[in-house]
Design brief:
Length: 509
């Protein structure tokens, strides 16, 4: 069985980052809410307690049940996790009156402690807490300090239970990954064998077992997640996988034909369904962004449902859901569990009664890409920018008509092609164009024009949660703008969006 690390989440913004770091070490891990410790812990080799926005001193502080964990397997408390261990076992945690936010430097390291193997005095760490440990429980000793924090790290005597008040998972902690490696590999002795190849082998075996001879239907979107999910399933069950790729009329130019060809080239059993007119009809006169999303979601379900019903005896619905969509996050006040629905598929009507299979539900986006590479999917497909489910509809800032879609497709195509030609495509996380609901005056030859304005957007990001606009070269923007105005009828002005997220968003609607 897969050897596994348990991460108990107390609601910190950094919990997912801990998991990513552990996976970077090729070690598998799972995040669970602090109050849902699995009953069967036999596959877990070590536990990490995350940070939290709560204070251990508050009345409703989240308190985990560690009876089956502490002293029974290696345990590392991070920030709140460390403070909880101290307070629970008789030490003292108080509001801090010194600066304990930002960069600090390790001192008084007990160098023969395995947690600090290869980590030197003055190594930079990142602090982010307003409480501080004032005294340790009797059976606990200090193993490092910083200039302002005496109990920066500690260990329970004769036990592999550790606590650190800084955050090893954030980039600013220079030796953070080393410290996690020391804990997981040196102390917990977990093998570093969780690789994309291993994931593929195990998942294909599991899918074969789970699905057997049954039929599975999957909606392909052209994006990385659904593509990787489809290729994995194809490897497991071959022709029993029925893929449906819907053209909603809101895709990029040539996208439907190109991607469909690529899918067929990959041996996928895929049916392309051109439902553009149905979507245009559903969107007629709709201006409100949320209503656009709703109408598109409903139309998609209808089309998909129709198609799925044509496959006899289908038993499973496969989805490209990934880990950030399913992590159960806990609120400060307790176990309020929120699960994001997968917005590209939107959920199917209950009466379909299909069992859901989600082969990527434990992977982060970058891991999905690594798995895709392992499966031999073309780098062109794997490296594609994210594209929203509602497509160009949320980039046309007014009602949708096929003519407006055509204009925006042409503009977008020139922009994206140019990014590729200038070798900028892979340096940008996501790019696209918006058709604005304004006309501007221009001159072409001797004639006055009164035409549309488009905005170009290119952002850098890691997960879409925050983003920065990309400083594209002026020469590039100049060339793209000229091409758009010369070649796309109906557009006489191009602007570039220089807003970050937050406070703006990536899409304009
Ligand atoms: P925002 O505009 O919220 O976008 O900064 C963040 C990321 O999410 C994508 N996005 C969507 N994806 N359905 C989707 O499948 C949607 O309704 C939707 N809205 C935004 C956006 O393209 C960006 O990658």
């Amino acid at each position: 069985m897969q050897k596994n690390i348990l991460i108990l989440d107390f609601g910190s913004q950094y919990t997912q980052l801990i998991a990513r770091r552990v996976r970077e070490l090729n070690i598998y891990c799972e995040i669970k809410p602090y109050n849902k410790v699995p009953e069967d812990l036999s596959s877990f080799r070590a536990t990490i307690l995350s940070g939290s926005p709560s204070s251990v001193r508050s009345e409703d502080a989240p308190i985990p049940d560690l009876t089956q964990i502490k002293g029974k397997m290696p345990l590392l408390g991070v920030c709140y996790g460390a403070q909880h261990l101290v307070q629970y076992h008789g030490g003292k945690v108080e509001a801090s009156n010194t600066r304990e936010f930002g960069r600090a430097h390790l001192q008084n390291i007990i160098h023969d402690n395995p947690l600090f193997d290869g980590i030197h005095t003055n190594s930079q760490v990142w602090m982010s807490h307003s409480d501080s440990i004032k005294s340790l429980p009797k059976n606990v000793h200090r193993i490092a300090s910083t200039e302002d924090v005496e109990m920066a790290a500690f260990q329970f005597n004769d036990e592999d239970t550790y606590g650190i008040q800084f955050h090893p998972e954030v980039y600013h902690t220079t030796d953070g990954l080393k410290l996690l490696e020391n804990f997981l590999v040196r102390i917990a002795k977990v093998p570093q064998d969780w690789t994309p190849a291993k994931f593929v082998d195990e998942t294909v075996e599991r899918l074969k077992h789970e699905i057997g001879e049954d039929k599975v239907v999957l909606g392909l979107s052209g994006g990385v997640d659904s593509t990787v999910a489809a290729v994995l399933l194809n490897k497991a069950i071959g022709k029993n996988l029925y893929c449906i790729f819907v053209n909603n009329g809101l895709l990029r130019k040539y996208e439907f034909e190109d991607v469909l060809d690529q899918y067929k080239g990959m041996g996928l059993n895929v049916k392309g369904v051109d439902a553009s007119q149905k979507f245009y009809k559903a969107l007629q006169d709709v201006k409100d962004p949320e209503l656009k999303r709703k109408r598109i979601g409903n139309a998609f379900i209808e089309v998909f449902d129709d198609e799925a019903h044509q496959i006899e005896d289908v038993k499973f619905l496969a989805q490209g859901t990934i880990y950030p969509d399913v992590i159960e996050s806990v609120s400060v006040n307790g176990p309020s569990v929120t699960i994001k629905s997968h917005h590209n598929v939107g959920g199917l009507p209950d009466y379909m009664k299909l069992k859901v299979v989600e082969p990527l539900r434990m992977l982060f986006k970058d891991e999905v890409r690594r798995v895709g590479k392992e499966l031999g999917i073309s780098p062109l497909l794997i490296g594609r920018h994210p594209f929203p489910g509602p497509g160009l509809a949320i980039r046309i800032l007014e009602d949708i008509t096929p003519e407006k879609v055509n204009i925006l497709q042409d503009v977008d195509y020139i922009f994206i092609q140019a990014l590729r030609e200038w070798d900028l495509y892979d340096k940008v996380w996501q790019a696209g164009a918006m058709l604005l609901p304004v006309h501007s005056v221009g001159v072409m030859g001797d004639e006055r024009t009164y035409e549309k304005v488009v905005a170009l957007r290119a952002v850098e990001s890691t997960d879409g949660m925050t983003a920065d606009w990309v400083d594209l070269p002026y020469k590039f923007l100049q060339s793209v703008s000229n091409k758009i105005i010369n070649q796309v009828k109906g557009v006489n002005r191009v602007v570039y969006d220089i807003s970050s997220k937050p406070p703006s968003t990536i899409e304009w609607e």
